[in-house]
Amino acid sequence: MKRLTLILLVLLAALGTGRAQGISVQCEEFTTRQYSKDFIDVGYTAGEQVTISAYVNGVRKPIGASKGVKPGVKKFRISGLPEKEYEACVIKLDFKDAAGKLVYTREFTLRYKDPRSDLHLLSIGVCGNRELSYPTLDYPRTDAKTVYSFFNMYASAYYTSKGFRVLCDPDETTTSNICLKLDQMANDVREGDVFMLYLSGHGEEKGGTYYFITSDTRKSALGNTALSGPLLLGYLHRMVAKKARVFVFVDTCHAQALYEGNPSLDGIVFFASCGSGEVSRDSVYAQALVQALSGKDGNSQIGNGYVTVGSLQDFLYAAVRRATGFSQNPACSHPGVDESFVIFKAPSAPQEFEVTSPAYPSAPAKAAPVTSANATEAYKKAMQLRQAGKHTEAFPYMLSAAKGGCKDAYFPLADMYHRGQGVTKDRNEAESWYKKAAENGNTEAVKILRSHF
């Protein structure tokens, strides 16, 4: 963001005028009371040559050479103004004639306006659910605090900080309290501000609607107790209506479902840790996010360490897929916001943030091996779990069914290896099972083998 030098208009009517021995002086009227650099340019008119003295908060300051703008109209620069938002800047100007006699005095007060945007941050990590409707997680609290600490430490390079909040404790992460904080921040943001939201925990997609699972969500009453996508978007739209920039980082399962199919998202940038039918792995996305923003990897930057929407999107996609064995595929949506829009300026000496690479076994031990006698039952169980989006649970059943001789399991097992659903993506295994399916008359498997292998 460029700082603009404050050059104020000269008003020739209804201004204070000094007269002595035929000398007439008029100084511009400062109709705005802010400046955005450590100097301002002052315009004045004088019937004859005058000498000007400038004082800033009682301290005399040298002024730049007076330049004629047009006959009788000149300007000069006062430097050394305080660059502190809270500190008033009292400027006093004395105009003297050739004999050293004071003919005119002006005094006015300005305040510094930091040209950086104000950043509002809300970082939320929900680990547990009071009714135990969802498994307790360890990492959301840590991830939410990591994101909060990173911005708290480094945001000042590009933003002024306003109202940073982190919610992690069960009493803080209820649906009503989260909505209260979103409402407060929607009221606080102003035109030109930036709002960032980080969500970590359980996410669920039901009937085409995304739900962020809070500490008091009841699975039996999901629509009334969770933080639903439409409810969340309502607060974000209020911020966009004020011409604020909004960035949302969703680090949950089914994250992409928050914005999929929504036609009114202009001005909101969504970064999803995974697709709408995928699982978001422990801490991987959060660590990739802070690593990208830190500028540690050159692929995440443009220019002098500036991270853009496009560069952050590319980095997260590559880093997270690599760290999860290509089973988690981050996504991004930014309607109405160009990819070149700068989100952050990487710190010159960033803290080290490493992306972890957990070992995901090819066959999680969640189902007992089956024989040909009950392979069909294992296949039915696998299909039920897969249709419910529970790919990690479905995979061992599907593998056991296929190995037990259930021919119907060959193609879906190949597809899971091909897509990396519930298992580390494995091209060789996928091809092997596609071939078995093709040998048993599956025409779709034949098409995929011809086009992809």
Quick overview:
The protein is an alpha/beta fold and 453 residues long. Helices cover 29% and strands 25% of the residues. The chain has helices spanning 139-154, 175-188, 222-225, 229-241, 284-294, 309-323, 375-387, 391-403, 410-419, 427-439, 443-452, and strands spanning 17-20, 23-27, 34-35, 39-46, 51-56, 59-61, 67-70, 73-79, 88-96, 102-112, 117-125, 159-161, 165-167, 194-200, 203-206, 209-212, 227-228, 245-251, 268-272, 306-308, 331-333, 342-345.
Question: Helical region count?
Answer: 11
Q: Rg from C-alpha positions?
A: 31 Å
**What can be said about the biggest beta sheet?**
7 strands, mixed
> Mean of residue pLDDT?
81
Question: Strand share of the residues?
Answer: 15-25%
- Count of folded domains: 3
Relative helix content: 25-40%
Give the termini separation: 49 Å
**CATH architectural name of the largest domain:** 3-Layer(aba) Sandwich
Structural category: alpha/beta
3D shape:
elongated
Low-confidence stretches: 1-21, 298-303, 350-370
CATH topology of the largest domain: Rossmann fold
CATH structural class of the largest domain: Alpha Beta
Q: What is the number of strand segments? A: 22
Q: What is the fold's blueprint, element by element?
A:
Layout: E1 17-20, E2 23-27, E3 34-35, E4 39-46, E5 51-56, E6 59-61, E7 67-70, E8 73-79, E9 88-96, E10 102-112, E11 117-125, H1 139-154, E12 159-161, E13 165-167, H2 175-188, E14 194-200, E15 203-206, E16 209-212, H3 222-225, E17 227-228, H4 229-241, E18 245-251, E19 268-272, H5 284-294, E20 306-308, H6 309-323, E21 331-333, E22 342-345, H7 375-387, H8 391-403, H9 410-419, H10 427-439, H11 443-452
Helix pairs in contact: 1-5, 2-4, 5-6, 7-8, 8-9, 9-10, 10-11
